[in-house]
Amino acid sequence: MRWLTALLMGAILGFVVPLLFGGQGGIWLETWVKYGTVRPFPQSPGLLFSIPIFLGSAIALRLFFNWHRN
After folding, report:
1. CA distances from residue 36 to 2, 45, 55, 68, 69 in whole angstroms, order as listed
2. CB atoms < 10 A from the CB of 58, how many?
3. Sequence-distant (≥ 6) Cβ neighbours of residue 61 within 8 angstroms
4. For residues 49 and 14, is the Cβ–Cβ distance under 8 A?
5. pLDDT per residue over 9-60, tens digit each?
6. Residues whose CB is less than 8 angstroms from the CB of residue 31 and which lie 6 or more positions away in sequence, other chains included
7. Is this structure's pTM higher than 0.90?
């Protein structure tokens, strides 16, 4: 897996996972996972982006698929 693909999949997960847990009105911003979560657009009604999930999943996907390929 190339870095661009891993970063793209990580970005998708960085948006989807906070929204699955309720977005701004849900449990996501009431626990410790709120650290590293940003609102990409100030007027956005519920869109969140988790930087730790973005980076962690991109690195994990790249390592897993490169290990699996060899």
Report:
1. 25, 19, 11, 30, 32
2. 22
3. 1, 6, 9, 10
4. yes
5. 999 999 999 999 888 888 888 888 888 888 878 777 778 999 999 999 999 9
6. none
7. no
Let me know the angle formed at the C-alpha of 7 by 4 and 58, rounded to the nearest 5 degrees: 125
One-letter amino acid at 39 equals R
Number of neighbours of residue 45 by Cβ within 10 angstroms: 8
Tokens for 26, please give them.
Answer: 């849900």
Cα angle vertex 62, ends 27, 13, to 5°? 25
* Phi, psi at 50, each rounded to 5°: -100, 110
- Determine the Cα–Cα distance for residues 17 and 54; give it in Å rounded to an integer: 10
Residue 5 has which token pair?
A: 């693909």
